């Protein structure tokens, strides 16, 4: 018999009853070992979808970033969740040259990569790894450049290849970035979830064994958790990284339980099969907050839900048509019925909390008569037929795209526009959007960093139109000039004036109709502490503590 | 008997050929490039194209292509899944045991509960108990499986919090895939906490098994009852009774054995319904089996997976049908003569 048997009550009621149950069933007396650490200190996060890859460089989808970025990887810099300021991470310090074109980062020397069944690192993080990571994005002849399709949507949208001339290792612990022009958003971009640092040593090993694709399916990073297994549409399993350079992660095991169905995710929260639940349905927040065993966390996030028109397809290539459609939509009804009041109406793509927000924009009025008049001017007095693509998953910026589409369908019918609603499974949906098969789409964007540029370039620039992440397929020279000008200047006042003008221009051109900025919610079992919502990106779970009573 | 078996095998082969022709033609009937549907490759590069076209005999006639398809089926060289880009055969081997495990427990329950209750109901057909059983059986037979499942989840998981709502085992238990059947795998796994894992797996198993067993159990009750009543009227029973055998002896030696013959046949007929119900059950309980996978594949427009899934499931249903037919014949000499 174990000496600690007498202290059973220390482990708490649940474990005690559980043990009793097992013991009485197996009729083995007093033999019960304590619950394994992996189960007791394991954390289950119920997510809304499967990740597309395990390399954050290759995606922009929030589902994937939530699942991989903060858990497996670290970045050179990080964004402080409270202040929005840049703080050191893998780079302990950095210097900018006087002309703003050279950045020198000094790396920590105590950062270990993951030790897993498929890779054992022989050395800590070095400048070589940073060079490897960013060259993969920039150099076409890099052995890994073409892996996963050779698309780096975030970096392409910020024009990375054009901006960064070279990344070199000065010493094993110093990395030099040379830019072709000053860019005031460079550091913010380095700190996003997408700029995760990969292992050059692991890369070399994979090149040797000819298994290049494993780089993105069997990840090696420096983050608080290491990869164990992934079953598509079922779960992702991580274990604690024992040699993490910061304080080791609190949970021994972290499982992402993939539950796309909202109701089922809530059910799993109530039965405590999930400790943390992503994106509880806004309609159910009242119900959740009534339960004593579950808490709701809330944070105003940097995001925008919008309705983007495929501006290349007629009739959406006409500004008047786009404006007419915008005027036809009753946004107040949508805010009530879809967001349940947990969102603010959006006048611009930028949320009002951003320093570059333009408060002088004309508010888009719900005015079917004006909409009808605009349509007639554009040459469609009898309206037309169109598709509204509604994304099949619930995201913060749009908790229920199908319902929104239905409301809009009714609004549009009033001005003679016959809308049909289209939806696919999420992966297919994004792929088809990327090849611009849609007429219009209800989707949105969550910011990765606090820089206003993050709302403009990844969403509406010409380079984003080329990579397929510009949902409006909109490439406009005037707009592109404005946002490029804003990047070239470091003076915040001047940058703001460019962004003001850009927002004004967007309001006139209407490539997309901004609908709402929503608050982010997360439902969490009340015995979990140390999890909070990060307004600038993916969720971090390393500090989650399960309070075992 | 051998002739009979040969006849059955011939029929099976014929049905399989018809099924495989159908599955093959889906490659053309589905949207998209037939070559993509057959290979499961999302992107076929210019270098790959001629090689694949040759391997899949795309330049030759349909018959040559079909034969190549058949060859690939038998050599295990199946297409890739569109969504995961993994070989379908491997994927299905991972999922099939989960479905079979669930279905076989449900079938076992339906035997061990359905048959005795059916007999009880037949003993006094006009009694209150018998009428009650019949009423419950009719209710169980007609209840929609998804509604029943949701009711049970609402009661046992959400209201009482006793049972989990989804999956085969708590996600924090890491059980390696050896046989694919959860309970043996837990026993085979080296973890020191097998008992807890086992208990956890059983709690996960309980609701889906009850839901899935409901329909076959009620069918079993009704059939056993009817067959018993039918047999009870036969003259050899009266003879046996007249010879002085007591009720129990007659029931066991003469009535039950004869009554169970049509019940065996019923298993085969119910199997296809069971698989259909298993799909619904799997979707509701997020059971990672072949049914949920097939339904997800339909949502994802995963054509190679739909094609292969249909072939596998229909072949399975037909094979089980055939096996029970043969079993029925083995037990019933009369059927052989027909």
TrEMBL record, chain B:
<dbReference type="Pfam" id="PF19300">
    <property type="entry name" value="BPD_transp_1_N"/>
</dbReference>
<protein>
    <submittedName>
        <fullName>ABC transporter permease subunit</fullName>
    </submittedName>
</protein>
<feature type="transmembrane region" description="Helical">
    <location>
        <begin position="267"/>
        <end position="287"/>
    </location>
</feature>
<keyword id="KW-0812">Transmembrane</keyword>
<feature type="transmembrane region" description="Helical">
    <location>
        <begin position="205"/>
        <end position="223"/>
    </location>
</feature>
<dbReference type="InterPro" id="IPR045621">
    <property type="entry name" value="BPD_transp_1_N"/>
</dbReference>
<feature type="transmembrane region" description="Helical">
    <location>
        <begin position="308"/>
        <end position="331"/>
    </location>
</feature>
<keyword id="KW-0813">Transport</keyword>
<comment type="similarity">
    <text>Belongs to the binding-protein-dependent transport system permease family. OppBC subfamily.</text>
</comment>
<feature type="transmembrane region" description="Helical">
    <location>
        <begin position="135"/>
        <end position="163"/>
    </location>
</feature>
<feature type="transmembrane region" description="Helical">
    <location>
        <begin position="102"/>
        <end position="123"/>
    </location>
</feature>
<dbReference type="InterPro" id="IPR000515">
    <property type="entry name" value="MetI-like"/>
</dbReference>
<keyword id="KW-1003">Cell membrane</keyword>
<keyword id="KW-0472">Membrane</keyword>
<keyword id="KW-1133">Transmembrane helix</keyword>
<feature type="transmembrane region" description="Helical">
    <location>
        <begin position="9"/>
        <end position="30"/>
    </location>
</feature>
<keyword id="KW-0997">Cell inner membrane</keyword>
<dbReference type="InterPro" id="IPR035906">
    <property type="entry name" value="MetI-like_sf"/>
</dbReference>
<dbReference type="Pfam" id="PF00528">
    <property type="entry name" value="BPD_transp_1"/>
</dbReference>
<feature type="domain" description="ABC transmembrane type-1">
    <location>
        <begin position="96"/>
        <end position="324"/>
    </location>
</feature>
């Amino acid at each position: 018999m174990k000496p600690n048997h007498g202290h059973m009550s220390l482990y708490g009621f649940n474990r005690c009853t559980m043990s009793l149950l097992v013991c009485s069933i197996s009729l083995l007396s007093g033999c019960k070992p304590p619950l394994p650490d992996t189960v007791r200190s394991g954390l289950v996060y119920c997510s809304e979808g499967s990740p597309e890859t395990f390399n954050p460089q290759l995606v922009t989808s929030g589902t994937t970033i939530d699942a991989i970025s903060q858990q497996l990887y670290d970045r050179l810099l990080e964004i402080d969740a409270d202040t929005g300021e840049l703080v050191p991470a893998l780079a302990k310090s950095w210097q900018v040259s006087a002309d703003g074109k050279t950045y020198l980062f000094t790396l920590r020397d105590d950062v270990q990569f993951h030790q897993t069944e498929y890779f054992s690192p022989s050395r800590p993080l070095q400048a070589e790894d940073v060079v490897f990571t960013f060259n993969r994005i920039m150099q076409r002849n890099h052995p890994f450049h073409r892996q996963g399709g050779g698309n780096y949507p975030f970096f392409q949208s910020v024009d990375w290849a054009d901006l960064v001339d070279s990344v070199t290792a000065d010493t094993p612990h110093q990395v030099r970035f040379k830019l072709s022009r000053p860019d005031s958003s460079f550091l913010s971009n380095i700190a996003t979830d997408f700029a995760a640092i990969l292992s050059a040593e692991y890369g070399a090993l994979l090149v040797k064994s000819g298994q290049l694709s494993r780089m993105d399916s069997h990840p090696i990073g420096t983050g608080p958790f290491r990869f164990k297994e992934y079953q598509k549409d079922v779960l992702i399993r991580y274990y604690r990284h024992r040699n993490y350079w910061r304080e080791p992660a609190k949970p021994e095991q972290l499982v992402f339980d993939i539950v796309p169905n909202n109701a089922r995710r809530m059910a799993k929260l109530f039965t405590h099969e999930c400790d943390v639940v992503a994106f509880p349905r806004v309609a159910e927040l009242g119900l959740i907050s009534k339960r004593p065993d579950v808490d709701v966390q809330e944070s105003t996030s940097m995001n925008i839900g919008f309705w983007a028109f495929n501006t290349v397809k007629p009739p959406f290539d006409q500004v008047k048509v786009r404006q007419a459609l915008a005027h036809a939509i009753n946004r107040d009804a949508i805010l009530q019925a879809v967001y349940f009041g947990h969102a603010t109406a959006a006048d611009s793509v930028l949320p009002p909390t951003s320093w570059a927000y333009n408060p002088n924009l004309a508010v888009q009025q719900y005015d079917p008569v004006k909409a009808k008049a605009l349509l007639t001017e554009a040459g469609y007095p009898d309206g037309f037929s169109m598709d509204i693509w509604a994304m099949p998953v619930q995201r913060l910026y749009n908790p229920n795209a199908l319902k929104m589409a239905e409301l809009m369908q009714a609004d549009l019918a009033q001005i003679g526009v016959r809308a049909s609603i289209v939806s696919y499974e999420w992966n297919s949906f994004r792929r088809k959007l990327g090849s611009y098969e849609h007429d219009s789409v209800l989707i949105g964007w969550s910011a990765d960093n606090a820089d206003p540029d993050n709302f403009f370039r990844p969403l509406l620039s010409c380079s984003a139109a080329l990579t397929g992440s510009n949902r409006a397929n909109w490439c406009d020279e005037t707009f592109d000039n404005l946002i490029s000008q804003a990047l070239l200047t470091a003076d915040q006042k001047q940058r703001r004036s460019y962004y003001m003008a850009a927002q004004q221009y967007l309001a006139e051109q209407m490539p997309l109709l901004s609908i709402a900025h929503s608050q982010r919610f997360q439902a969490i079992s009340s015995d979990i502490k140390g999890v909070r919502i990060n307004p600038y990106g993916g969720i971090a779970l390393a500090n989650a503590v399960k309070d075992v009573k | 008997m051998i002739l009979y078996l040969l006849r059955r095998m011939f029929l099976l082969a014929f049905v399989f050929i018809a099924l495989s022709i159908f599955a093959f033609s889906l490659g053309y009937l589905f949207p998209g490039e037939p070559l993509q549907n057959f290979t499961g490759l999302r992107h076929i590069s210019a270098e790959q194209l001629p090689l694949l076209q040759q391997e899949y005999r795309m330049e030759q006639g349909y018959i040559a292509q079909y034969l190549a398809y058949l060859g690939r089926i038998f050599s295990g060289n199946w297409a890739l899944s569109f969504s995961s880009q993994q070989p379908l055969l491997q994927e299905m081997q991972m999922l099939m045991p989960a479905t079979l495990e669930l279905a076989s427990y449900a079938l076992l329950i339906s035997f061990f509960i359905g048959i005795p209750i059916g007999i009880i109901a037949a003993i006094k057909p006009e009694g209150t108990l018998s009428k009650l059983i019949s009423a419950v059986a009719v209710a169980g037979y007609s209840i929609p499986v998804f509604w029943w499942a949701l009711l049970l989840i609402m009661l046992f998981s959400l209201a009482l919090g006793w049972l989990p709502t989804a999956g085969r085992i708590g996600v924090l238990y890491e059980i390696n895939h050896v046989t694919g059947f959860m309970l043996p795998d837990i026993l085979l796994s080296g973890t020191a906490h097998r008992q807890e894992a086992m208990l956890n797996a059983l709690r996960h198993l309980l609701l889906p098994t009850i839901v899935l067993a409901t329909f076959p159990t009620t069918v079993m009750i009704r059939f056993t009852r009817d067959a018993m009543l039918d047999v009870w009227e036969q003259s050899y029973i009266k003879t046996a009774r007249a010879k002085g055998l007591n009720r129990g002896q007659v029931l066991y030696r003469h009535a039950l054995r004869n009554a169970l013959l049509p019940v065996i046949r019923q298993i085969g007929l119910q199997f296809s319904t069971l698989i259909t119900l298993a799909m619904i059950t799997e979707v509701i309980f997020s059971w990672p089996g072949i049914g949920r996978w097939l339904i997800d594949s339909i949502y994802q427009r995963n054509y190679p997976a739909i094609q292969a899934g249909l072939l596998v499931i229909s072949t399975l249903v037909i094979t089980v049908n055939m096996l029970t037919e043969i079993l029925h014949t083995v037990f019933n000499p009369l059927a052989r003569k027909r």
